[in-house]
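Lab notebook, bench 4. The sequencing result for the construct came back, and we need a structural model before the next group meeting so we can plan mutations. Quick request posted to the team channel:

Model the 3D structure of this chain.
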Amino acid sequence: MSMAKEPWRLLVADDSLMTQRILTQTAARYGFEVVGVASDGREAIQRWGELRPDAVVLDIVMPEIDGIGVLEAILDQDRDARVVMLSSLHTRKDVLECRSHGAKGYILKPFEPGHVFEILRGLLETVRSD
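Done. Here's the predicted structure in token form:
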């Protein structure tokens, strides 16, 4: 008897309530459950530590601590954490900076919610295949 797969657990860290709502509402369609949201960098680090989600969608420009600082703090605790950056900043330098700090992906705003979850699914499929 095969057991149903649990949905992937996701933390959404973005100071835009609209972005939080869009991703939360779209999550279930793609096999995700948003287990937490954060509106600033400090809260994002705290929620990540409490929840230890399967993946994080993280805005770059946030109050308190910016996305790069949050990314570094998360990766200091778990080098294998799967963090996808979300931003309206789209210079090559921004993308390369995120990648060099360990982000697993970079998505530009405005975005298609389905695109976000396809990227996340690609990152997480390998984890489930064992």
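The longest helix spans residues 113-128.
Will bring this to the meeting.
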